[in-house]
From TrEMBL:
<dbReference type="GO" id="GO:0000155">
    <property type="term" value="F:phosphorelay sensor kinase activity"/>
</dbReference>
<feature type="domain" description="Signal transduction histidine kinase subgroup 3 dimerisation and phosphoacceptor">
    <location>
        <begin position="197"/>
        <end position="262"/>
    </location>
</feature>
<dbReference type="InterPro" id="IPR036890">
    <property type="entry name" value="HATPase_C_sf"/>
</dbReference>
<dbReference type="InterPro" id="IPR011712">
    <property type="entry name" value="Sig_transdc_His_kin_sub3_dim/P"/>
</dbReference>
<keyword id="KW-0067">ATP-binding</keyword>
<keyword id="KW-0812">Transmembrane</keyword>
<keyword id="KW-0418">Kinase</keyword>
<dbReference type="Pfam" id="PF02518">
    <property type="entry name" value="HATPase_c"/>
</dbReference>
<dbReference type="Pfam" id="PF07730">
    <property type="entry name" value="HisKA_3"/>
</dbReference>
<dbReference type="GO" id="GO:0016020">
    <property type="term" value="C:membrane"/>
</dbReference>
<feature type="transmembrane region" description="Helical">
    <location>
        <begin position="21"/>
        <end position="42"/>
    </location>
</feature>
<feature type="transmembrane region" description="Helical">
    <location>
        <begin position="88"/>
        <end position="112"/>
    </location>
</feature>
<dbReference type="GO" id="GO:0005524">
    <property type="term" value="F:ATP binding"/>
</dbReference>
<keyword id="KW-0902">Two-component regulatory system</keyword>
<keyword id="KW-0547">Nucleotide-binding</keyword>
<feature type="domain" description="Histidine kinase/HSP90-like ATPase">
    <location>
        <begin position="302"/>
        <end position="384"/>
    </location>
</feature>
<protein>
    <recommendedName>
        <fullName>histidine kinase</fullName>
        <ecNumber>2.7.13.3</ecNumber>
    </recommendedName>
</protein>
């Protein structure tokens, strides 16, 4: 019970601090907005300034702030920010400033000239002329304004942040336009990925299986020609053809496994992931919830994503352990692969992340990679699975 209360106190203290800092920043940016309003009439400047505020508000509320930002809404936000942000920020400044006055200046009231001594509660204009007024009145002022800073300022900050996100929220038409753009890009990516996959399969069949079949045909032809002249060589040629045929079957099976892993059909996604973890040279801890029935396409993409992620952990992360968490919430499948490696994953170095993004985007999913230098690395994927 004590630990719960302590966590709640820490959370409230963090809210009070972040809310106060947010409102003081709001006052400063409101003044800057008012002074730079002619500059903000230009759409690029207005959008950049509004986007900065939107991300700031999203961080305070702990919600994502994304979507296309139009010039008109950015300009409307500049005007609303001056009208609302300035009084809210000024209220925070007065509250915190008077706490500072009460805490620092009032104990030193005697050091001020008689006509310039500090006052308590600006509205009541209570002058400090003795120690009783300084100590009692100062304590009351600190308590009242401290309670306001603890309870009221975080609420005002969150109201301002919600107003910011509401004013700058994309319209339904803008969301539809952005959605169409995303689907267009993902379709292009899917087409490119499909073409690359066909080229890879063709190359594997041409360089592997087809070459083996040509060798078998040559060996059988030589055996037929040697049947009358050198019967003893026929057995050796047939043995070679048999070995080559087995090798061709293995290579063909390998190619087919890359199209749709047979283990998914044989053991399902649960068994396939367990097999991946067992084969991994890095120990993998699996947390697998009940996923229910999944479409075959979703299972295949999930298997590919996890296989590629564990391969990256083995080859690039220098990790000692990894963890795989996969769960389903309604119609959304969530996958998370983490490792304790060195981090710093760079998609430009060919670590397979672009391929993961293309496959997930084809199902209208999302990929998030968090890999700071020094680790840990987290790959989070969400896909619709209705």
């Amino acid at each position: 019970m004590t630990s719960v209360r302590r966590r709640e106190e820490v959370r409230m203290r963090d809210r009070a601090f972040s809310g106060s800092v947010y409102l003081l920043g709001t006052l400063a940016t409101a003044v800057i907005t008012a002074l730079a309003l002619p500059v903000l009439l230009a759409p690029p400047a207005a959008r950049g300034w509004a986007e900065w505020h939107r991300q700031r508000a999203g961080r305070l509320l702990g919600v994502p702030a994304d979507g296309r930002l139009g010039g008109r809404r950015a300009l409307a936000w500049a005007l609303a920010h001056v009208a609302v942000g300035f009084p809210l920020g000024l209220a925070a400044l007065m509250c915190l400033g008077n706490i500072l006055v009460a805490a620092v200046a009032l104990p030193l009231w005697w050091a001020f000239p008689a006509g310039e001594r500090p006052t308590l509660f600006s509205f009541f204009d209570v002058h400090v002329g003795d120690w009783e007024t300084a100590l009692v009145g100062g304590s009351v002022q600190i308590a009242v304004l401290g309670a306001a800073a603890w309870w009221v300022l975080p609420t005002l900050a969150r109201l301002h942040a919600r107003l910011c996100l509401a004013v700058l929220a994309p319209s339904a038409r803008e969301r539809l336009t952005e959605r169409v753009d995303v689907l267009t890009r993902s379709r292009v990516g899917v087409v490119d990925a499909h073409g690359a996959e066909l080229q890879r399969i063709e190359r594997d069949l041409h360089d592997g299986t087809q070459a083996r079949l040509v060798t078998i045909a040559m060996q059988l032809g030589m055996a037929r020609e040697s049947l009358a002249d050198d019967p003893d060589a026929v057995a050796a040629l047939l043995a070679q053809a048999h070995e080559t045929a087995e090798e061709a079957m293995v290579e063909l099976r390998t190619v087919l496994q890359t199209i749709y892993p047979p283990i998914l059909a044989d053991r399902g996604l649960d068994g396939a992931l367990t097999a991946l973890a067992v084969r991994s040279s890095v120990p993998v801890h699996i947390e697998l919830a009940d996923l229910g029935a999944l479409p075959a396409t979703v299972e295949a993409v999930a298997y590919y994503v996890i296989a590629e992620a564990l391969t990256n952990v083995t080859k690039h992360a220098a990790a000692t352990r990894a963890a795989l968490r996969i769960k389903r919430a309604g119609d959304v499948l969530s996958i998370e692969v983490t490792d304790d490696g060195r981090g710093g994953a760079d998609e430009a170095r060919g670590t397979g992340i672009p391929g993961i993004r293309r496959r997930v985007a084809a199902l209208d999913g999302a990929v998030r990679l968090d890999s700071p230098p020094g680790g840990p690395t987290t790959l989070a994927v969400q896909m619709p699975c209705a």
